[in-house]
Amino acid sequence: MKLRFKSLKGWLALSGLLSCVAMPSAYAVQPASPEMLTLTCYACHGTRGASAGPLQPSIGGQNPKYMFDTLKRYQSGERPSTVMGRIMSGYSDAEIKAIAEQLSKYPFVAATHQRDVNPTKAEKGRVLHDQHCKKCHQDNGRDYAEGAGILGGQWMGFLKLVFDEYKAGKRPMPKEMQERIGKVTDEDCDNLAHFYASQKH
Amino acid sequence: MTVNRRDFIRILGAGAALGLTGFPMIASANEVLPKRNRRIVVVGGGFGGTIAAKYARMADPSIEVVLIDRERSHYACPFSNLHLIGKRDIGENEFGYSKMASTWGVQTVFSEVSAIDGAAKRVMVEDGYIAYDRLILSPGIDFRFDEIEGYDAKATPLLMPHAWKAGEQTRLLKKQLDAMENGGTVVMAIPSAPYRCPPGPYERACMIAHYLKTAKPRSKLLILDGNDQIASKGKLFSAAWEQFYKGIIDYRPAHKVVKVDTKNMSVDTGVEEIKGNVINVIPPQKAGLISAAAGVVGEDKKWCPVNPITYESTKVPGIHVIGDAAAIAPMPKSGNAANSQAKMCAYNVVQLMNGKEPMSPTTVNVCYSYIAPDQAITISSVYKIGEDGKLTDNKTTKTTANLDPYITSLEAKYGVGWMTAILDEMST
What we know:
The structure holds 2 protein chains of 2 kinds.
Chain A: H1 8-15, H2 34-38, H3 42-45, H4 64-76, H5 84-88, H6 93-104, H7 119-133, H8 138-141, H9 156-167, H10 175-183, H11 186-197
Helix pairs in contact in A: 4-6, 7-11, 9-11
Chain B: H1 5-18, E1 39-43, H2 49-59, E2 64-69, E3 73-75, E4 94-96, H3 98-102, E5 107-110, E6 115-117, E7 122-125, E8 128-131, E9 134-137, E10 141-143, H4 156-159, H5 168-179, E11 185-190, H6 200-215, E12 220-225, H7 234-244, E13 249-252, E14 259-261, E15 266-268, E16 273-275, E17 278-281, E18 285-287, H8 290-294, E19 304-305, E20 319-321, E21 326-327, H9 335-353, E22 363-372, E23 375-385, E24 391-392, E25 398-399, H10 405-427
């Protein structure tokens, strides 16, 4: 993404400004900063990646490697999506890396104003989490171990969609997770969603 | 003749506009919020203006930002069509500006803007003028009423609502639909592109047709489109009409309404006069009126040409135009486009004010359109500056592939998420 206009005349011609009477000053242009590149994400994922929900995950404070891999999987279609794959087709690897790293610098903001968390289900979810998930999704899913995204504090709607995708086999996952997701029922997934959604940061 | 305060300001404003051509600025006008620091003024508190104000403060909090709008709250247009079927109340689309001040330190001024003097860098408000270093203008649209014979700017919308600026107009259109007899005819007139929200009229057609199908099944929806074909997501809308609304929608492309008659409740295409029980005329559009007073409207007398990197007007330096008012093809006039442009514009205005090179922007657009209460389709694009210096989508513009109900129901759910998020971004 290099945009350097060698001469003033060339730049003006490109901008169609040569014929203008009131001519704005000519600018040299530099590539977008990582901060500027992330701004468009916020229309759906919230300012600095703190999602207002109900279906979009918070993307601030995530593991940058996980974020890069996820965005690349959207781009290739390996991970199914509605608009994400199409949007990622407009970005280079270098830009995706810059976005992933920039987002990781912001705090993860938990969706604390969720009204639909059921404490009984969340408690059942906690037991399931301890049994199946905690090795990779550490600190009740609030921390990211290598390769895992933050689950604790995400929106319930998002968590349920993710479980649906995994259960339906629509989304690739590590072998270890494949084995575990095979052992849990749809009801278990629902309980797990309540557990992760109930996490505060 | 009595001159009230607002008229007096308008007269002053006319003089101020002359400032551009060297006419002396009204020296006696009062300076509102005397300018002591570097300052960006944003005019217009919709999808573009609120975001530009917020992100300018985020980019450099040492620069003052003043946001001016005539209203204390704004009704968002996206999802307003869902009000027509009772799926969402238009009241949920209203947002205010209190957090702009408390969270971001944006100073808000609620006033009519009567003129903008690009040479003196002053915005005329009701109580005087506000000075700026750079101005971001996000005025939205106004209508080209004069292109429809018999259309009265004040009276006609009360009888034939356009509902193309959300709020009372949306409520009025729903009331008229609710009051119509089963067996009635609804007539919709779509203006020639470009206009605000390219897929919007066709989404509205789906919502009205759904309402008729479920509540008044003997009724019909006649669509008179000023365009030669469906202006956006054409294949998908055609398929949706065929699948869901066959026998209800009568679509007539290349049928431009040139005349209205509110007494007869009819519209005229120049070829035939057509009567309707409910008539929704969406007039052709242009940049918000203040653009003309600021001198930033282009040769077409409709839209404002801008530099695609900084959004600076090619007509008046120091004024940046974003949102529906800007001529920035191939980007459509949409809320998401305005949001995206506002961020890029704010960051580059701050760059310029700090004596730095502007950055090459990447903007995104996503538009959700409902084809049934729980089914939606999208179009999305990513825009960059091409090697020729012009804005390009690099062939990223794509729609939902087809009407697979699993996908369209997922899109409908994400649509609610999009709306929740973009409203939240403007009000937190």
